[in-house]
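Researcher: Here's my situation. A collaborator sent me these components and asked whether they could plausibly form a single complex. I don't have experimental data yet, so a predicted model of the whole assembly would be a useful starting point for our discussion.
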Amino acid sequence: MSGLCVAVPNGALLEGACELLGAAGVDVEASRFDDALLIESGGHRLIKVRPTDVPVYVEMGAADCGIVGKDMLWESHRDAYELVDLRFGGCRLVLAAPEDSALAAGNWPPSLRVATKYPHAAVRFFDRINVAADLIKLHGSVELAPATGLADAILDIVATGRTLRANRLVEVAEAGRSTARFIVNQASLKTRSEAVTALAAALRRAVDARAAAKREGAA
Amino acid sequence: MQDAPTVEGAGAPRGRAGGFTDWLPGAARRRRAAGDAMIRTFEGWGYGMVATPLVEPLDTISSGVGAAKQTQLFRFMDADGALLALVGERTVSVARVVATQLRDGPYPLRLCYAGPVLRNQPPLGGRRRENLQAGCELIGAGCIAADAECVALAAEALSRAGLGGVQVDVGHADFLPGLLEGAGLDASDRERVLAALSGRDLVAVEEALSETSIGDAERALLLRFPALRGGREIVDAAAQGLRAERPRRALGELAQLWDLLMAYGLEGHLHLDLGAVRDWDYYTGPTFELFSGELGFPLGTGGRYDGLLGRFGLPLPATGFVLHVDRCCDALARRGGEAAEPLPPALRVAYAAGGEAIAIRAATALRGPGAAVACDLEPSDGPPAGADLYVDADGAARWWDGSRWADASTAEAVAALAGSTNGRRAT
């Protein structure tokens, strides 16, 4: 099996990505990335990059494949095959409004100003529900926008809901669900087909085995 | 030898639009050579070259390509207010030419072209916005032999451009839509699955399929997606359990295409890919992509597009392909086929004051048999380092034989240089 270059995201998904790669036979401790951005394991090269950059490395062929949250794929118009739902790093994209607002009570105003870090996903969501919204792109701390009068509502990623509660915001609607995905460069899927499909199959088996173990644990 | 000028005036305009490339001497020559090699190959297979404008009316373009590609056009306005665009590909232009000026054939009509195309992509994405493309269109032939000719010609042209042994992946634009229709999916379910497939999102394909009533055989086939790929044997494997006529016909065409391509000598380089997903609103039959191990993008793409000519009022079957010359140059550079080449190798003719006229005649004489010759623009006091020929005012000359200056008459020196280096400076 010829070696692949695999891009993994730093931050929240790094630990889970390394665990899953380990279960799929590519042994890698997340701590090995503490003092190196490029490591080798099992004949593969693994690179740690920012989550937003994983699709860039994969599309351009600098990495053959990568692990990245679906939420990153919403915003990047990057060309890559999305092969496996890795079913970890789950989060939801929700529309949230101040708890005392009309919107929170279910009354949609005729026009809506929405702050978000996810403008592309927001456009698709508001198109789907046929609501005219003015979008304001922010780069962080979106939850401050309603309190300061910048926007009526926010469209943001929620994992536990703690941030929403702390800022007296409530969920109005769900716009999408995200989990980690295994993505592959279009040429690598063809020219390194055996190695790529073997890794995809091993990841899929690891994901299924986990899900089965979880069901057993719950039973 | 002059020093490179130092840059002064930090505010001077020297910007270049993002996503555009300056091709420097050497790289630009190799790029042109790659394009020329492709065109020569096309012409050697009986394809006549056409040149189409860099600009087309937006109407013409939008009648040919899908909405997605229209968002990436550089657009502007004509004097009468009509919208124009820089072409993002040239097949539509060739189709327009055939439907308006070459209607009478003779068919099949074999045409080729080369030229820049522009895509207004985000400038910092690492993708070029201007690309040189060379391609062929084979119009008026609906048979698989025409598809085979295009696949084989594309591979041969890449080989002549220095990229031998590329991998060819062949699919069929009607296989998956036919499979879904044959499985009894209604139009909206089919559209959802096909949208997920063309978005290359196999997770969404699985989700979409799980919510439909598709049969087990078809579901199993679709979920094997990346593994729907291999040699001729996958045609038979896929045909098992498929009763519907449409996907079976697509499989039959692929088998026929495979056999013809073996005759073209593509054994070992050819893969069938039933999951190959290309623009369905454009392609109607076999499609193909060419890859080399060096690059994360295809070097060329093509396929059958029987619907396009009809949109220009001339309903004729057609197949063709485009090769991405700039990507080929990237792949060649990564293969390390040719070392960096700062300036084209040329013989340098220098002269003493008063020897200009003799030097110019000597340079002309050397260029006659095909040598590249650069003549100095100012006289030198004695033969300068790096020169190949030095002419005195009285016509006496010296030529550099690789290790020392040899005395001769100008005519003798010219003959010696033309003979010893065959027009290329020895390095």
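Model: Some features of this prediction you could bring to your collaborator: Chain B touches chain A through 24 residues (CB under 8 Å). Residues 347-421 of chain B form one domain.
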